[in-house]
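Give me structure tokens for this 284-residue protein.
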Amino acid sequence: MPMRAGLTIGGFSRITHISVRTLRRYHEAGLLEPAEVDPSSGYRYYALEQVPTAQVIRRFRDLDMPVREVGEVLAAPDADTRSALIAAHLGRLEDQLAQTRAAVTSLRRLLQPAAPPLAVELRAEPERTVAAIRATVDHGDVLGWYAGAMAELDAVLLARQRPPTGPPCGLYDNALFTDERGDAVVFVPVADPPAAGRVRPFVVAAAELAVTVHRGPHDDIDVTYGALGTHVVENALALAGPVHETYLVGPRDTTDTTAWRTEIGWPVFPITSGSRAGSPDHHP
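Here you go.
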């Protein structure tokens, strides 16, 4: 029997540090075909030139790239297509990493043995007319929508020479949290709000607010919301209307996320006899 050229699957495994079982899976998935397969025995033989390809596949799989996408990268007709496919996957990994970091931050805060009590004040806010952009959005799209709306607001106010008279703010409908879709408004207080593009004058209704300040990045802002809601219920108040957020210090001001300060204001009203906390919510 003539000597086979190349490496057996075991030898190829030793060189690449990829298990024989995994190499077989790569073959079955069409990711890495052996250079030759003996038709009688079924033995697989690999060429030395396939070592870099095997190692590239392993790196992509270590990054949890789906087999289908690995195949698309390997079959890409040019470097630009290949780079775009890789960049898309890396973007998804970065999003997953950000979600993991946010969850870790929230858990660390929740597991603190003795968190300081939340400082809450009741504040009466008068009606005011502001420059705003309003839309109905999905909860998962709020951050992207906010960034685009804020950039448009900045551009319009600069072009119309309307300097802000206060920090940027947001109004978020309760349905955004309960139904994962609802109305959102981003606005900036200015004198004589203009109308241009999506920007329109908007009347922020007068409200009695329970107000607290969230310190740091928004990774664990839900914990502050929970503490504020608990305070409201414990003090015989009920939530009434969209939540107000005022970005006292944020990414527009500093890249130091520990310096961020977000004021949260929840419209409230006293609970009277026969009413219950949360009575405006009609969900069963």
